[in-house]
Amino acid sequence: EKGGYDYFMLKEIAEQPQAIADTLLGRLSERGDIVLDEVRLTDQDLRDVDKVFIVACGTSYHAGMVAKYAIEHWVRIPCEVELASEFRYRDPILDRSTLMIVISQSGETMDTLMALRHAKEQKARVLAICNTNGSTIPRESDAVLYTHGGPEIAVASTKAFVTQLVACYLIGLHLAQIRGVMYADEVAAVVSRLRRTPDNLRELLTRMEDVRELARDLKTASTILFIGRHVGFPVALEGALKLKELAYMHAEGFAAGELKHGPIALIDKGTPVVCVVPSPAGRGVLRDKVVSNIQEVRARGARTIVIAEEGDDEVAAYADHLILVPRTPTLLAPLMTAVPLQILACEIAAARGHDVDQPRNLAKSVTVE
Ligand code: M6R
C-alpha cells in the first residue's frame, strides 16, 4: 500500500506532480480561461468582493500566506490571512462583500470550521479549498474548490499543500480575470507556466539524493533555522513546521529581513540556516536582499543550506549546501522550493528513528478547538 516506499509521506511527496496535474485538470479551457465549476458563487458575487480573508491552520495556513501574495498582486484587492484559531476571537470586520477563503485538507478541522461559521454569521461569502469530498467544511461553505490530491495518509501534509497552492492560484487568476484586472494573455501566460510545474517537479524529485545525505548530517543539530522573503517566507515557516512535527527538533522560520531585529543573535558557529532564495528574474531586488541576509548569517558562523533557482550561479558562493530548483515565476516558486524541505524533514526524522507517518502527539485531523 506504500507503493514500495518506506513511508506514506515519501509516497505522497512523490505523488505531488500528479496531484498538481489532477488539480489543474478540467479547470483550464483551451483558450486559457479558468473554469471553476464547483464554485457556486456567481461572477457578479465575486466582482462585488472588496476584501478577501484567508483562514486556515498549520500547513494550510502557509498555503494561505502564499495565496495572499498572489491575490493581492493579481487581483489588487486587500487580502488578509489569519490563523483560524485566532480569527474569531478578535472580532474581525466582515460583511457580504467579504470573500472568506477557508483552506483545509481534511475539511474537519474544528478551528477552521468555527471561523467559517463566524464568517457566515457576519454574512461573508465563504469559499472552501478542500481535499476531502463531502466533509463538513465544504458542506457548510457557499462554494468549494476541491483539490484532487487523493487521500493523504501521513500526518504531515505534503501533496495537499501543493494542491492547495494550485487552487489558490486558480482562484486568484479567476478573480483577476472576471474583474478585468488581468488581460487574457497575462492569465494565459501564468496558466501555461502552471501547466509545466508537474514536469518541473518530477525532474526536481529525481535529484534529491544530496538532500538525503544532508539530512543524515543534520540529524544531531540542536536547532535549524529557516529564512525567506515574500513567498519564500511561508515556505520557510513550512520547512520549520515539518521539521518540528516529524523530527521533534527545534526549528524556526523567519522573514529574512527580521533577522537583524532579534533572531540573528541565535546564530552560532555551525548553526544550520536554510535560506530560500527568490528568483533573480523579475524581482531581482528581492533576491539580492536575501543574498545579503545569507552573507550576514554566514559572517556569524552559520552553515547555510541555500535553495535557489537553476541559473542563479552566483549564489553558490554563499552556500555550504546548494539545492537548485527549476525556474518558475516568483509567485509559483513555492511549488518547487517547499519540496526539498519536505524531504529534508522526512529524512531527518527517519534518521532519528521516528515514526514519520505518525508523529507523537499529533492527529491527521484536529477535530477539537
Ligand atoms: O486538514 P487541515 O488542512 O485543516 O489541517 C490543518 C493542520 O492541522 C495541518 O496542516 C497540520 O499542520 C499538518 N499536520 C502539517 O503537516
Secondary structure layout plus pairing:
Elements: H1 8-14, H2 16-24, H3 43-48, E1 51-56, H4 58-75, E2 79-83, H5 84-87, E3 98-104, H6 110-121, E4 125-130, H7 136-140, E5 143-146, H8 159-178, H9 184-205, H10 209-218, E6 223-228, H11 232-247, E7 250-255, E8 272-276, H12 284-299, E9 303-309, E10 321-325, H13 334-351
Helix pairs in contact: 2-8, 2-9, 4-8, 4-11, 8-9, 9-13, 10-13, 11-13
The protein binds 5-amino-5-deoxy-1-O-phosphono-D-mannitol.
GO molecular function, one term: transaminase activity
Active site: 364 (for fru-6p isomerization activity)
EC number: 2.6.1.16
What would you note in describing this structure?
Helices cover 44% and strands 15% of the residues. It has 369 residues and is an alpha/beta fold. The strands form two sheets. It has a five-stranded parallel β-sheet, sandwiched between helices. Helix 4 links the parallel strand 1 and strand 2 (79-83). The protein is globular. The two termini are 32 Å apart. 56% of the residues are buried. The mean pLDDT is 94. Bound molecules: 5-amino-5-deoxy-1-O-phosphono-D-mannitol. 5-amino-5-deoxy-1-O-phosphono-D-mannitol binds at residues 57-60, 104-106, 109, 112, 155-157, 241, 245, 365-366.
What fraction, in percent, of the residue positions are helical? 40-55%
Let me know the number of strands: 10
- Specify the number of helices: 13
Q: Which cofactors or ions or other ligands sit in this model?
A: 5-amino-5-deoxy-1-O-phosphono-D-mannitol
Order of helices and strands: HHHEHEHEHEHEHHHEHEEHEEH
Secondary structure class reads alpha/beta
How confident overall, as mean pLDDT? Answer: 94
The separation of the N and C termini measures 32 Å
